[in-house]
Design a protein that fits this description.
By secondary structure, this protein is α+β, with helices and mostly antiparallel strands. The chain is built from five helices and six strands; from the N terminus they run E-H-H-E-E-E-H-H-E-E-H.
Length: 141
């Protein structure tokens, strides 16, 4: 399950540019973002100068602007423009409302933030996945 929140753009625009940045990445979060964009038949722009920092995020040029997709702090570090704290709180609140039906302990949720050069954080994507029944015993081994 995927929920998208945006500060000043439509959700499809956030998904479109995030999927463009993540298109060549191989981790499960990137695949979920790209799969959702493709299922909605969004046309992904071509990217340039891609940089992947495993465990933190991905950066690429999209439509002439650098776009970062990753953890909140990592995206903030890429761009000096900081989002207004109330905008960030509203963004996180909208993600919680989108995914309120998946707050059960049977779900695992990861949030990645989307930032644009000159603007800072412009959106976020929450990815929820069902935790497998055998996950606890696997981790305990």
């Amino acid at each position: 399950m995927l929920a998208i929140g945006s500060i000043h753009y439509g959700e499809s625009e956030i998904l479109r540019i995030a999927a463009a940045v993540e298109k060549t990445a191989s981790h499960p979060i990137a695949k979920a973002i790209v799969n959702k964009a493709e299922s909605l038949e969004l046309i992904l722009p071509v990217t340039k100068r891609q940089l992947v920092e495993p465990g933190f995020g991905t950066l690429a040029e999209v439509d002439g602007h650098l776009i970062a997709v990753g953890s909140l702090e990592w995206v903030h570090q890429r761009f000096q423009t900081r989002v207004n704290p109330s905008d960030l709180k509203n963004l996180e609140h909208s993600l919680m409302n989108h995914s309120s039906n998946t707050t059960s302990s049977k779900y695992s949720k990861t949030v990645v933030y989307v930032g644009r050069e000159g603007e800072g954080i412009i959106g976020a994507i929450a990815i929820s996945d069902t935790v497998r029944e055998d996950a606890e015993s696997t981790v305990m081994r």
